[in-house]
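Hi there. Long-time user, first ticket. I'm pasting a complex I've been working with (about 367 residues overall). I'd like to know whether the download I got is complete or cut off, because the file seemed smaller than I expected. Thanks.
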Amino acid sequence: MGSKQPFERVVAEHGGTVLRVCRVLLGRHDADDAWSETFLAALRAYPDLPETANVEAWLVTIAHRKTIDVLRARGRQPVPVGELPAERAGQAGQAEPAGAGVPGGDCLWQAVRALPDKQRQAVAYHHVAGLPYAEIAQILGGTTEAARRAAADGIKNLRKNYPGGAPS
Amino acid sequence: MTEPTNLFTTPHDAATLARLHRELERAAEREGLLDVAYRTVDSPVGSLLLAATPRGLVRVAFDVEGHDRVLEILAGQLSARVLRAPARLDPAARELEEYFGGRRRSFGLPLDLSLSRGFRRLVQQQLPSIGYGQTRSYGQVAELVGNPRAARAVGTACATNPLPVVVPCHRVLRNDGTPGGYVGGPVAKATLLSLEAAA
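Hi, the file is complete. Here it is re-exported in full:
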């Protein structure tokens, strides 16, 4: 007993990553709600988490379930373009470092949105959360190889649709 | 192969995360999951960590104790559901501010004494009976709790007081009148004693 870190440190260390994962999975608006539900559920379950557990993989697993609930609730409707964050429009002219995701973000959003669920999830868990494919296979079900392929296909589709030659 | 993707960060993330944290604090309190709430306050004796359970203030810690380390110990002793959640500590912060401003002579906060047991707890429960601006020796406190030969154990009880300042172990001095040790260091003890002497 006693070696588990205070939950505040879990929030401080992983809050940003979980937020980015939720944004990839759901888009900006629903991501905030999914983040809140993820961390409240995590706080509830935290005392029972084994001390040796990979905390980030555990959080991503909870986020995975919470985002599926959100997707089900909205009937897997693609997000209307109008839902894209309004703040973006106001910042379009602002200089940002390449990859900061603000200019051109809408195109990226649409490309991510267009991915099949498994590919979007695999990309989020590997390329955003940095989880190994073996962990991702446990979250998604299926084999490690299938998780690797889903992420690779997802990246390939993103390269095809963004920012290459896709109509914007 | 793994190219860290920063595409989903924005310049507003810090503000977003701060807002989400505040919402988490409120939801945790509402759902009964906020086992230990904490915040820090600035004071004439340095930054103080304040921690409370739903039952009351459970820990006051000086900077020299290492706030991170204190939180780790609380996570082990009480519950790992520890969140920075200032709202629960507002009354404590207010009373401490009044105390350090010379406008308050005793604390009316609900206290959670669950970090102390046995004789130490008995001693700590007696300490508030030493009035503001007064002092007692370890031996006198030992008599107060009905165990006149336990001066050394009284010293230990003071040294392990989980609620310094609020539970006034700083008002207990060596039998020869010199200040003796203090969990917040000798300067903190002298500061508190002179604050109370001046008011």
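A couple of notes from our side: Chain A has one domain: 7-164. The two ends of chain A are 55 Å apart (CA to CA).
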